[in-house]
Design brief:
alpha/beta, D-Amino Acid Oxidase, Chain A, domain 2, 3 domains, six-stranded mixed sheet, 15 helices, binds flavin-adenine dinucleotide, Geranylgeranyl_Rdtase_fam
Length: 468
């Protein structure tokens, strides 16, 4: 499916934000040491008496991964997180490649999902997951567990993890090449757990900042990064009787239909001792509770007797912010706007962007020995856009084609029964690559897709006649 959609895009040219900016050049052409020609950091001033100081604001997956990489790379790293036991509203589904790439221990993964039920508006259920190899699965985590683990690992690598609320940042008048003027961060220390009141006001001087403070990012505001369209996602954690929980042992459900969401999907994801039931929408935010009710209603037989133990909601960015970088400040994860359409996935992309941004700083500063400049941080954006642009585009197209009406969703679920579609979808999800397809199977899939969509349109016309 992904490769088919990708081909639809083959004619488009990819111009990244980064390409619209200047490239770093060297005063003298050197042909033998190419590695250094593009390294602006080499010509930036040396940092003396200390190493480069970087603040990471926000300790979710983006911030935890960034801080660990910075600390391991010789950077004096401070991570500011407002709530150490933060329980980020999230389905908690992570791809298999994240477990390997981030070396996650298996005991922080609540469930290994090997079966996904895709359920159409008319409640036709298609089981996907038949093509998975024995070692393959979708991980289900609780965010309070995953985030704390990544933050602890950053601390173990040498990051100074502060429990505080970031308030604002003073940006130096000139943060351009050659400048080593510091950014001054204002934050309140230890947030009182009992009174909810803020602690003492403090300031912190650093050379560079990574904004990993999520969808409502204050770092983004401080650099005038601009806004993005967002979805609102709602989720209830429901503790269901243990015999009902057996059904969700290694199974997750996705519900599609106008009732559960006009532009997204509803889900039931299994956790250690409960299920997370939720939905999201961009276009009908005011109806979110009604949509959530419908999602719960659709799953009613399977969650009967359940007790709601937590209700949560949060924005999900729909696309990157107009600006993700300014001087020595870069945004990562939800702060930058890296959630995919269609699947609403952002945990892996948050951790990955945090790590990629930190790597660019470590490399540009030669392990903390030199000042960095915007050109160093821009390398992260260039690499990011080059690596993930196709994935975002494919999922954008899929959402536009298949989530637009109930007949189109019926067609989508029908297509999901195809083994080839399942393989392509799972491979793309689990390994975060737009998988190149087999030409013959792609052709078969194209014919089937057109068949499904034609049937869907015919069905819609018939339904319109009925409703006239
Ligand atoms: C209901 C719902 C379900 C979802 N389901 C999934 C899913 O199943 N799979 C998936 O991959 N993605 C899912 N997502 C998306 C995913 O949750 C996000 O993409 C991901 O959390 C982004 O990580 P992050 O580190 O960028 O930001 P966040 O996880 O939002 O972390 C930001 C951190 O910064 C801290 N912070 C914020 N402001 C400040 C401040 N001023 N000072 C100090 N600290 C601050 C916060 O406390 C938080 O810990 C879901 C989202 C929602 C809302």
């Amino acid at each position: 499916m992904s490769s088919l959609a990708l081909k639809t895009f083959a004619g488009l040219s990819h111009r990244t934000t980064a390409e619209t900016h200047r490239t770093v050049s060297h005063p003298k052409p050197i042909s033998t040491h190419k590695r250094f020609i593009v390294r602006a950091g080499k010509f930036s001033p040396k940092v003396t008496g200390r190493n480069l100081r970087v603040a990471v604001v926000g300790g979710g997956p983006a911030g935890g991964a960034a801080a660990e990489t910075l600390a391991k790379g010789g950077i004096e790293t401070v991570l500011i997180e407002r709530k150490m036991d933060n329980c980020k509203p999230c389905g908690g589904a992570i791809p298999l490649c994240m477990v390997g790439e981030f070396d996650l221990p298996l005991d922080i993964i609540d469930r290994r999902v090997t079966k996904m039920k895709m359920i159409s508006p008319s409640n036709v259920a298609v089981d996907i997951g038949q093509t998975l190899k024995p070692h393959e699965y979708i991980g289900m985590v609780r965010r309070e567990v995953l985030d704390a683990y990544l933050r602890d690992r950053a601390a173990a690598a040498g990051a100074n993890v502060i429990n505080g609320l970031f308030l604002k940042m003073d940006v130096p008048k000139s943060a351009g090449p050659g400048s080593d003027a510091p950014y001054v961060l204002h934050y309140t220390g230890q947030v009182s757990k009992y009174t909810g009141g803020a602690g003492e006001r403090r300031t912190l001087e650093v050379d560079a900042v990574i904004g990993a403070d999520g969808a409502n990012s204050r770092v983004a505001k401080s650099i005038g990064a601009g806004d993005y369209e967002y979805a609102i996602a709602f989720q209830e954690r429901i503790k269901i009787p243990s015999e009902k929980m057996e059904y969700y042992e290694n199974l997750a459900e996705m519900y599609v239909g106008d009732d559960v969401s006009p532009d997204f999907y509803g889900w039931v994801f299994p956790k250690s001792d409960h299920v997370a039931v939720g939905t999201g929408t961009v276009t009908h935010k005011g109806d979110i509770k009604k949509l959530q009710f419908a999602t719960r209603h659709r799953a009613r037989d399977k969650i009967l007797g359940g007790k709601i133990i937590r209700v949560e909601a949060h924005p999900i960015p729909e696309h990157p912010r107009p600006r993700r970088l300014s001087g020595r400040v870069a945004l990562v994860g939800d702060a930058a706007g890296y959630v995919t359409k269609c699947s609403g996935e952002g945990i892996y992309f948050a951790a990955k962007s945090g790590r990629m941004c930190a790597e660019a700083i470590v490399e540009g500063s030669e392990n903390g020995k030199r000042m960095v400049e915007e050109g160093d941080l821009r390398k992260y954006l260039e690499k990011w856009d080059k690596t993930y642009w196709p994935t975002y585009k494919v999922l954008d197209v899929l959402q536009k084609v298949f989530y637009r009406s109930n007949p189109a969703r019926e067609a989508f679920v029908e297509m999901c029964a195809d083994e080839y579609v399942q393989k392509m979808t799972f491979d793309s999800y689990l390994y975060k690559k737009v998988v190149p397809g087999n030409p013959l199977d792609d052709l078969k899939l194209a014919v089937n897709t057109i068949g499904s969509l034609v049937r869907a349109n015919a069905l819609r016309r018939e339904m319109e006649k009925i409703s006239v």
